[in-house]
Amino acid sequence: MVGLRVQSKLFIAIAVNIVLFIGVILFVIKPYFVEKSIEQDKAMTRDQIESVSEVFANHRLMLERILVDWSVWTNAYDFVQNENDTFVENNMGKETLENLGIGAMIFLDKNREVVYSEFNQIYELEKAEEKSAFTNDLLRYVNSSSMTQSAVYGTDFGPVVFMSHPIVKSDGTGEPSGTLVIIQKIGPDFMAAMSAQAKTKLSISPLAHQRLTIEQDSRFARVSLPLQSIYQDANWEVNFSVKRTYYTNTQTMLETGMFGLLVLGLGLLLTLFWTVNQIITKRLMGIVKELKWITKERNSRLRIHLHPHKQDEIEEMAISMNEVLDALEQTQKESLTRAFRDSLTRLPNRLAVEEMFMNLPDTTRSIGVMGIDLDNFRRINDQFGQRTGDAMLTFFASRLMFYKEDGFVARIGADEFILIHLEWTTEELMIIANQLVKDLREWGLKQGMNHLTLSIGIDELREPSHHSYEVMMARLDVVLHEVKASGKDNIISYQDIEDGSHYLQTLEMERDLRHALHHDEFELYYQPIVSPQPFQVMGVEALIRWHHPQKGFVSPGVFIPVAEQLGLISDVGRWVLVQAITEIQEYAERFDLFLSINVSKRQILDGSFLETLEETLTDTGFHPHRLHVEITESEVGGNVYELQQFIQALKVIGVKISLDDFGVGTSSLSYLQSLRLDIIKIDQNFVKGIPENKFDRALLEGLYQTFQTLGLDIVTEGVERPEQLAFVLEYSSSLIQGYHYSKPIPIDQLHHYLQKTVMTQI
């Protein structure tokens, strides 16, 4: 029955694992790939929409250029005022329209009356009556209350692209004398040309959707794009379809794969069950039965029965278990005598302290704890010999035993002791501590050793039921650390340092930093770096921010130095690099931006930055030429060789190098020759005094001239006022980073900022 029960469990376990495997594929991996394929199809659809929009927009711009060329012309200006009789003969004709690629051109006077019209095979209008009807149809739009510069209208003869512009002199003087209208026929030839440029079949129909509409089925995404998004006015829309290639291919692949996995899983289930049961399970169950018998008998001399003729891993496991049983039997004998006692002083050890703390009476109200560290004990061993050191430990242990009364003392380290007494206060422990210092000094003088000192930390735990052994030892470590930090040979209580311990604050900051890394408390802000003339956002610098759940905003100037001191800066830097590239990638490609990232000295020296950078660039596909790595000038000194190797590695990848905060460190101009830098970021301290301070003006002007001569790009930081910006623009072509354009902002605000900037440029 036992064998049958194990077999059943084995069969169920294997079956469950196979089902789970298939389930993971079905419910996790399959949705993932389907979702990815849907995203890829959506991206392909978006790209096609952008392509179609761009094609129509380019066509509109072409017509606008033609329109401006003919309407802003003194000859046309005179013509519509009947002052240029030879205009038509010299300039107009079907060949002209054919060369311009337009269907019709209509000249109107100030009263919107037709002065002249020319047609080029537009909707096969051959007769004068048809051309007149077509022209009158268009004049309905021209004579409307507000004439539109560009539009797509439906006429009795079909849809047309309609463009109009006031006719003025070439130099722009004088009032408009009329209006020039050019017409582009939207027929099969036009749509075929547009389809060829957009690389997809396009059709046009009357407006049925007020906004961009995408309708999907299992094979196609059908797009309706209102032409109002391209022309000022339009009551028509462009229609086209995008095949959902990724989705259909993924579905086919997954359906085929799932069927194959099902067949394979069933075969694997039967094969594994038979193999494991015959070769492994039966023998393991035999060993398990023997182990249960040994456990039941509690006889340390019993061993597992061996089969010498079976030399395999299971037999080796049985032999190893017997060897473990032998070792356990021997260790049991030795550990009983040494588990809770130090062999030299015969005092209880750290394990005994933990056991004692775990068994405190429930009525205990407070505990007095004193930790003692023999100062410079290793030097004493080296100078006077280990025997003298052992004698010192033995003597000190005896004095602790003398003073402990009904307390508890233990040796918890090579030169560390602890005294615990229920109900003793800090003041009472102070008395004992001073007596111990005196006793050790007197013993040292007798042995010919001067200046034997102790570092003693005292703590008083009230309501011990609210504390654990680990808390007690941690508090004791803190106070002993403060004693040693103050120069040793001192007695300090935990209550003295509880509110002002730098060590405690550092420990708390370390704990909070590690928690922040694992619980997404960090956030990235981005400060735009702009080119002022013409205004354009060229890039952004990623800056880390920390919103502590209890403390609120914590300045980077506070936690970054602590992270560097504790060795956490590489983890923080790794998070910044991955998060910044992930967040900014879409904006970098859409708005043609570079991303600037700061790197610390520790990241350079331990190689973590390069490793993370290569991995992130591979995973995200982020273009290396869009990434700028900033090295702070104050970290250059003393690390030139390492920096040269680091910069060379970045150059190979294609990343640009910036020297940040130029002028605040000590390297200054001496390292520009040895480091292959691309960009110099001038520190904001150079900008604060300009234009008022003559020295700052002269210095900054000289720096600009030097860097431009060396062929280095420049970014000026800290520009906040218009007069500062004016000075920078007067003496350089520097990029600008400062509050004049934008403070550091989160990613959602950056999105609005960039959109607003683009709209402003348009």
Structure commentary:
- With about 750 residues, the protein is an alpha/beta fold.
- The protein is built from 24 helices and 25 strands.
- Helix 1 runs antiparallel to helix 7 and helix 10 crosses helix 11.
- It starts with a helix and ends with a helix.
Count of helical segments?
24
- Beta strand %: 15-25%
Structural class: alpha/beta
Per DSSP E runs of 2 or more residues, the count of β-strands stands at: 25
Mean pLDDT level: 83
Structural topology:
Layout: H1 2-71, H2 74-79, H3 87-91, H4 94-100, E1 104-109, E2 114-119, H5 128-142, E3 150-155, E4 158-167, E5 178-185, H6 188-198, E6 203-206, E7 213-216, E8 220-226, E9 233-234, E10 236-243, H7 245-297, H8 313-338, H9 350-358, E11 366-374, H10 377-384, H11 386-403, E12 408-411, E13 416-422, H12 426-446, E14 454-462, H13 469-485, E15 490-493, H14 494-497, H15 502-518, E16 522-531, E17 536-548, E18 552-554, H16 556-566, H17 569-591, E19 594-599, H18 601-606, H19 608-620, E20 627-632, H20 640-653, E21 656-662, E22 679-682, H21 685-688, H22 694-709, E23 713-717, H23 722-731, E24 735-737, E25 745-746, H24 747-761
Parallel strand pairs: 3-9, 14-15, 17-19, 19-20, 20-21, 21-22, 22-23, 23-24
Antiparallel strand pairs: 1-2, 1-5, 3-4, 4-5, 6-10, 7-8, 8-10, 11-13, 11-14, 12-13, 16-17, 16-25, 17-18
